[in-house]
Design a protein that fits this description.
Chains A, B: Keywords: Decarboxylase, Lyase, Pyrimidine biosynthesis. The structure is a homodimer. With about 300 residues, the first copy, chain A, is an alpha/beta fold. Chain A contains 14 helices and 14 strands. Chain A has one domain: Alpha-Beta Barrel (TIM Barrel). In chain A, the strands form 4 sheets. An 8-stranded parallel beta barrel of chain A has the order 2-3-4-7-8-12-13-14, surrounded by 8 helices. A two-stranded parallel sheet of chain A has the order 1-11.
């Protein structure tokens, strides 16, 4: 079924236009934020979650502004905000809002998943609208979220419903980038690994929701630390955009992610968090200048590698 | 290894003393909260998240007060708070605080799980303490949380660390109670189902952390909708407390959960959410009276069934 899938078609058009398939992961850590930002907020609010939350928001806005030349997709990881309490989550909310204000796209990295009625609450919270009497309000307004498949299809269905109703997207965890990912995901069920089984599910959902650009609102998280698997999974899920973590700090490079793309350079979003956010700690430069350079370099490396492979 | 495991030993002592292995799930839904509570807050705050959050907190406190005679463990499901935005999450926080104020135990039903560094942030957020300069602050102070095993052991380890440091506990999703749970969890890896494999992991972690009462801080979520599996899993995880959802609204009854207990009536916590919270909608009584009766009945049914089986 081909049809309207505005978010995905817009995303793909923009990836081509801006030659940028990169995602900047916004994983704020208090101990890694520049001292000048922290100093100002500690003076105003003391050693409180408020001081942290204000520092995070200041830092994130600085990063977003700095890298907009080479990146327009941002992925805040909500765990790093939850650890700073309600104020931290407010910083998550405001970060998502700021990305939208400046014309970016937000992937809420929430990895939620629960029984149907609970998944529905999560889906409403992050992709949909909450109804209160005659009003509809958005709790956390992401374009995409990441979701965990352990509970099966009725954990996923409420998210797919919100994708259809509100023109949103999801990335289902298929193969993650962490060292122990194989303990469950690599086990064989008959002749098929578990992550391949999940990939088959994702493909099944994706073919029902594929837009004009050939891609679906149902994507997959596929770690860059396993390049040979990327290739096989690319074949298994031809309509799904891959969200590929693990570039930079987790060990993956441009050569390792190239298999995630189709022959037109579409179909993959490559995430880098620490390698961009905290580049300044290696170079000693202003954090915005360092982040901008790191994002530009990452984008250039991937574009170069895609051109090399296309020849 | 037997040793100090104060939370678990305290929990078990109290289950015996109060003859109560029941958990009240606090899953607030705006459309099911009594009109009188909503009316008051709509008048004060309009159709806003603030009005919802205040109503939820009022309702939850009313439920907690009403059922304390037969229940002392409460399980707020965070999804139902996230859907009401930052104000909703503040109601989650205050609900956890209130349970502690009145001497109850909190299971934060968050089902988180991510790569190591991210799981660490979640573990700090919900079980540990966040460090800001010279201060340590608690973001969301639960006694237990639920966690998802799809990413393997390095997703679990940070939670286990916080359990040890702060005397907390976890329930790992093993076999869930939803209709589609079998799609992944029931698949065979060799001769073993996936959920049995996860049960083996849980047992491995539990034997390292077992306290004087014979139970560990590492428990398991095992759905009551599958009683024959409960028995097998009880044998596989003798040191783990089972958190059993699915009682009441999801179809399970006292007969279905009895296999989750050991011969001393320990080893299981049986959750009921909707059947207690919204009992008033069936009986037409005041919501607190109806909840109190429903909790008392549930407790009595389980105690009776345990006595019947013990004979």
């Amino acid at each position: 079924m081909r049809g309207e899938n505005m978010l995905i078609d817009h995303l793909n058009a923009r990836i081509i236009k801006e030659k940028s398939p990169i995602v900047v992961g916004l994983d704020p850590r208090w101990d890694l934020i520049p001292e000048a930002i922290k100093h100002e907020n500690l003076k105003a609010y003391g050693e409180t979650f408020k001081a942290v939350a204000e520092s995070i928001l200041h830092f994130n806005k600085g990063i977003i502004d700095a890298v907009m030349e080479s990146a327009f997709v941002f992925k805040p990881q909500i765990a790093f905000y939850e650890q700073y309490g309600i104020e931290g989550i407010e910083a998550y909310y405001k970060t998502c809002q700021y990305v939208k204000e400046v014309g970016g796209i937000v992937i809420g990295d929430i990895k939620r998943g629960d029984i149907g009625s609970t998944s529905e609450a999560y889906a409403i919270a992050h992709l949909g609208e909450t109804t209160i009497g005659n009003r509809s309000l958005k709790a956390f307004d992401s374009d995409f979220v990441t979701i965990n498949p352990y509970l099966g299809s009725d954990c996923i269905a409420p998210f797919l419903n919100q994708c259809q109703t509100h023109d949103k997207g999801v990335f289902v965890l298929v193969k993650t980038s962490n060292p122990s990912s194989g303990e469950l995901q690599d086990l064989f069920v008959g002749n098929t690994r578990i992550y391949e089984r999940i990939a088959d599910w994702v493909h099944g959902w994706s073919i029902k929701t594929t837009g004009n650009s050939g891609y679906s609102s149902v994507g997959a998280v596929v770690g860059a630390t396993y390049p040979e698997e990327l290739k096989r999974l690319r074949e298994k899920m031809p309509n799904s955009i891959f969200l590929v973590p693990g570039y930079g700090a987790q060990g993956g490079g441009a050569k390792d992610v190239v298999e995630a793309f189709d022959s037109n350079g579409l179909g993959a979003l490559i995430n880098n968090s620490r390698g961009i956010l905290y580049a300044y700690r290696k170079t000693g430069e202003n954090y915005q200048i360092a982040a901008k350079k790191a994002a530009n370099e990452m984008k250039a490396s991937i574009v170069l590698e895609l051109e090399r492979v296309a020849k």
